[in-house]
Design goal:
The complex is a heterodimer of chains A (about 300) and B (about 700). The two termini of chain A are about 35 Å apart. In chain A, helix 3 packs parallel to helix 10. Chain A is an all-alpha fold and about 300 residues long. Helix content of chain A is about 70%, strand content about 0%. Chain B is mainly alpha-helical. Among the domains of chain B are: about 280 residues, no CATH class; about 50 residues, no CATH class. In chain B, the strands form two sheets. A two-stranded antiparallel ribbon of chain B has the order 1-2. A two-stranded antiparallel sheet of chain B has the order 4-5. In chain B, strand 1 and strand 2 form a beta hairpin. The radius of gyration of chain B is 27 Å and the shape is globular. Classes of the chains: A mainly alpha (about 300), B mainly alpha (about 700). Chains A and B meet through strand 1, helix 3, helix 4, helix 5 and helix 10 of A and helix 17, helix 18, helix 19, helix 24 and strand 3 of B. Strand 1 of chain A pairs parallel with strand 3 of chain B, so a sheet runs across the interface.
């Protein structure tokens, strides 16, 4: 049963960029295009690692260290998030606070690196990023607290072990509420439509992309790979909640979770194909709404 | 057998420790004496540059060493280390004692005092300062600095209400003189005035509380208070304590003095005030909770409400500030709000009979108090170094300082990361414990709602704090300089950098190695006997996750190192070109086109506009070739403008009527005296047989 304890970090490190490929392929198919190969993100990373780096004269060591710090932190987060029905390597009460903290390291670095360039575009991206992060965090915490309460546990692995289809049937409509809140947080934190558009190159409308305008070469590869891992980590949180299916066989459970991740990627692709980015002033409402849904779920579970 | 050198010294120490607890306490009292003597010596120095002035910081150093020795010696067993001497003051006695709670608050006091004294000495002596001290005598500052430290030593060790209140008052007055040390500046005089009034109102509540406690216990010794703690309901006492101690701690809405007073003082004094002095309020509150009997549920809710208001409000106001030191002061309010949330949750745990919640929440309180002293002390010292180098504290006129002041910048970065709650630094551990307590509370049906409240509040506050401190570092230290002053900044001297580096190291160390001492404090807190805390071993289990956090953090550092090696290998044979920042083809980039601090926080601060009420002063560009345009924003101190100033204004108009009696004419005053004396005489004559 514990195979996935050791397997998950490896699988996450290997498969994370594939999520991006899946999303892009889904969008291409829906738009009637053939689209890039599924493995394109890997090729991009390999190409960036072979390129030179260009630095702005304004920047300091902060700009160079931030991509590495972010990638290191999110890699460690894969050790804390459980997957495939097995507990995580590092499991302890309140471990999701550590996951959020590790993701915060990456954000702190990216924001400072953006401000380090002295560019007003990147300042704008940083400014939006801290606004959305401050609002997304309560939603994430409340949603996970609702899951923890339903499962009577405070560690992610404990929540995963204790939640089952029956426990959610008992809790009633709390599951869809939590899932909706978590999905909103996943979309917002990973710079996806309807919060941010990862494809646009018009700086004024972007958040995450605009912050990394000045990064190049291996630094940019670290950032892209880190973002892919972040999507994997947060996606795994969502999949663990939505698919609490346990068959008893480690391989079946693992396959269910992997299928869930693929479904999530397709779902993100569907969302991105079917709606436009929200106006920036509306995004806080989306996130506050997500927090409200999570709070409502908590109330339902508490009842 | 003769021992020599080190072993002999240890042996002697051990003998002293065994001889009795008296010595430990006497060492602390000796430290108080040294401080008073050194302060007086520095004050009497004729010439500002004279060697006698050095007595001030020198005495602070000596006193810290002596007091630290006393603390170390008292470690053995923590028997009640008490000294009691008679004192002719009514109800007073000179009774002092050391217990784990006192020691816990003494640690940041001693550390920060020693470092702030070194920093202050270098700050005062360095002629390059951009803010000349205007002929002000450093001796005066050192007198009040030393008296402030001495009074805090007494506050933490006093075990008699009268002695405690006297020390409390000395603390308020000495810090008043430090706040107004720049008395040539109007804002400093104003800040001092607000501070003086607020302090005394707070003390009035404490006076009432101790009077009630004394009446109940029949004595003004803390021992007697604790013994009589079960004698009747303590609701009124609790309210008095929250207002009285909360004023010192800067709880909203009693915080009005804090954002005025802390920035007005010299930077090393701000560090001491924000790092340690406001914690005296927390200390007093915890101490009092041991006296006033079993808590009620509403006590917890009151503290949770105050904590939520202070934490969210403090963070939002911090976000909107332009001045680094004001931003730091508001952030102190936010952090004391987190502490109040911990206290409130702990009380809820006591009421609901959930010892795990209580232990975790009070653990969060203690850890956060210590960590806040470290990172807030560090950040105030860094702000002082910036002021020293540029003469500017307005973030919108700074920028690019990391290139010009790399060491100061690195220290600020560490402090900002710690206060933003990034693992593994100290700030994260406190927040983590608070989250853990809140999660534990959600699993306890009776107090689940309070747990959810804390969860939502703290996670919001963490995001706001991260925004405020990326603003400090990102706008102040990164990018291009926004003014000639910032352009010309030079690195601070070794005298300023030394204490900053020491605190930066302490911030990192506090995140990694802290559980052991604190388990010890908790398991043996004397008044804790009244609270249903789990046993020592159970506490260790509850706190075990923090070690895993340390492990994860070590992994992050290792991976970072590996990635750095990889990056170096990859870039080895390639050019790493340097060019301008990508500006989308714009031909003439200018430093003023950067995002400013105001624009950086605008989206987030905009969400709190109903609370902040930031005013825009905007001259928009007009015509085809606009000559000029101007935008300035100010965020008024809401509670002061909307609550206290109207209330005090009304009070003044009411009291104005009594100016009929007090008008300055001496003859009439003499007449009053004569009339009263005559009346007394008549009364006496009538009642006499």
């Amino acid at each position: 049963m514990r195979a996935w304890t050791w397997l998950h970090p490896v699988v996450a490190l290997v498969l994370a960029p594939l999520l991006g490929g899946l999303i892009a392929r889904t969008k291409a198919v829906l738009a009637g295009r053939i689209g890039a190969p599924l493995l394109q993100p890997y090729r991009d990373l390999a190409r960036l690692l072979r390129k030179e780096s260009v630095y702005s004269r304004t920047t300091t060591a902060v700009f160079r260290a931030a991509p590495m710090a972010g990638l290191a932190a999110v890699s460690v987060a894969t050790l804390v998030v459980p997957f495939g029905g097995a507990p995580a390597l590092l499991a302890f009460p309140g471990d999701f606070v550590l996951v959020v903290g590790l993701l915060a390291i990456g954000r702190f670095g990216t924001v400072l690196a953006a401000l380090d360039t002295g560019s007003s575009f990147e300042g704008m991206g940083a400014s939006r990023e801290v606004q959305l992060a401050a609002l997304a965090e309560p939603a994430l915490f409340l949603a996970l607290a609702a899951v923890g309460l339903a499962a009577q546990g405070t560690s992610l692995s404990g929540m995963q072990a204790a939640s089952s289809v029956e426990s959610w049937l008992r809790a009633g409509p709390a599951l869809p509420l939590v899932a909706a809140a978590l999905l909103a947080v996943v979309l917002a934190e990973n710079a996806r439509i309807p919060v941010d558009d990862p494809n646009t190159h018009l700086e004024l409308t972007m958040i995450h992309e605009v912050m990394v305008l000045d990064h190049s070469g291996p630094d940019l590869a670290f950032i892209l790979y880190g973002s892919a891992l972040k999507l994997w980590v947060m996606g795994a949180l969502l999949v663990n909640v939505v698919l609490p299916i346990r068959t008893g066989s480690a391989w079946t459970d693992g396959a269910v979770s992997l299928g869930g991740m693929a479904l999530l990627a397709v779902a993100i692709g569907l969302i991105e194909s079917s709606m436009a980015r929200l106006r920036l002033t509306r995004v806080p409402q989306l996130l506050v709404g997500a927090a409200t849904l999570a709070a409502l779920a908590l109330v339902l579970v508490l009842r | 057998m003769r021992l020599s050198g080190g072993p002999a010294f240890c042996y002697t120490l051990r003998r002293i420790a065994l001889r009795g607890p008296l010595y430990c306490m006497l060492l602390i009292l000796a430290a108080v004496g040294i401080l008073l003597g050194g302060g007086a010596g520095a004050f009497l120095a004729r010439d500002p540059g004279s060697r006698w002035t050095r007595l001030g910081p020198g005495a602070a150093h000596a006193a810290c060493i002596v007091a630290a020795l006393g603390v170390v010696l008292s470690w053995r067993g923590f028997l009640p280390h008490a000294v009691r001497l008679p004192w002719p003051a009514p109800f007073g006695s000179l009774s002092f004692a050391l217990d784990p709670l006192s020691v816990w608050f003494l640690l940041p006091l001693l550390l920060l005092t020693a470092l702030a004294a070194s920093y202050g000495a270098a700050y005062m002596e360095d002629g390059r300062s951009h803010r000349p001290e205007g002929g002000r005598r450093p001796g005066t500052m050192w007198l009040f600095f030393d008296v402030l430290v001495a009074s805090m030593l007494v506050v933490l060790t006093a075990r008699n209400a009268v002695l405690f209140l006297v020390a409390w008052e000395v603390m308020a007055l000495s810090s008043f003189f430090l706040v107004t040390w720049h008395d040539d500046r109007e804002d400093a005089r104003e800040a001092g005035w607000v501070y003086l009034v607020a302090s005394h109102l707070g003390t009035a509540f404490l006076l009432a509380m101790f009077a009630l406690l004394g009446a109940r216990a029949g004595s003004f010794e803390f021992e007697a208070f604790a013994a009589a703690s079960a004698a009747g309901p303590g609701g009124a006492l609790f309210l008095l304590a929250v207002v009285g101690f909360g004023t010192k701690a800067g709880f909203m809405p009693f915080h009005v003095w804090l954002p005025e007073a802390h920035p007005a003082a010299p930077s090393h004094v701000s560090a001491l005030m924000s790092g340690v002095m406001i914690k005296m309020g927390i200390y007093g509150l915890i101490r009092t909770l041991g006296f006033i009997g079993a808590p009620d549920g509403w006590w917890g809710w009151l503290l949770l409400g105050i904590g939520l208001l202070s934490a969210v409000g403090g963070a939002a106001f911090a976000l909107a500030q332009h001045d680094i030191k004001r931003l730091l002061a508001y952030s102190s309010i936010e952090n004391m709000g987190l502490v109040a949330l911990g206290l409130g949750l702990g009380i809820m745990g006591i009421v609901a009979g959930a010892p795990a919640v209580t232990a975790l929440a009070f653990a969060a309180v203690l850890v956060h108090v210590l960590n806040h002293a470290l990172f807030k002390g560090l950040l105030f010292l860094c702000a002082g170094a910036v002021l020293h180098a540029t003469g500017v504290l307005n973030l919108n006129r700074l920028g690019g300082l990391l290139r010009r002041m790399p060491r100061t910048g690195a220290c600020t970065l560490v402090g900002a990361a710690a206060i933003s709650g990034l693992p593994p630094l100290g700030g994260f551990v406190g927040e983590f414990l608070l989250f853990l307590a809140a999660l534990q509370a959600t699993l306890t049906p009776a107090i689940a709602v309070s747990g959810v409240t804390v969860l939502a509040g703290v996670s919001l506050v963490a995001g706001l704090a991260a925004a405020a401190f990326t603003k400090v570092v990102g706008i102040g230290f990164l990018g291009h300089p926004r003014s000639p002053e910032a352009e010309a900044a030079r690195e601070a001297g070794g005298g300023l950098l030394g204490p900053m580096k020491a605190l930066a190291v302490a911030c990192v160390a506090a995140g990694l190695a802290w559980t052991a001492p604190f388990v010890f404090v908790f398991a043996r807190h004397p008044e804790g006997g009244a609270w249903p805390l789990p046993a020592g071993a159970a506490i260790r289990d509850l706190l075990a996750p923090t070690w895993t956090v340390g492990l994860a953090a070590a992994l992050v550092v290792l991976l970072f190192g590996a990635l750095a090696l990889l990056r170096r290998r990859l870039l080895r044979r390639r050019d790493a070109r340097e060019t301008v920042t990508w500006d989308c083809g714009y031909a003439r980039p200018e430093t003023r086109m950067q995002y400013s601090g105001t624009s950086y926080v605008d989206p987030l601060a905009g969400l709190f506009q109903p609370l902040l009420r930031t005013r825009l002063d905007f001259d928009p560009p007009a015509g085809f070739f606009p000559r000029s345009s101007r935008l300035s924003t100010t965020t008024p101190a809401l509670f002061r403008k909307r609550l206290y100033e109207p209330a005090f204004g009304r009070l003044r108009t009411t009291l104005q009527r009594f100016t009929l009696l007090q008008h300055g004419r001496l003859q009439l005053y003499v007449l009053y005296i004569v009339v009263v004396l005559l009346l007394l005489l008549v009364l006496q004559a009538r009642s006499a047989p």
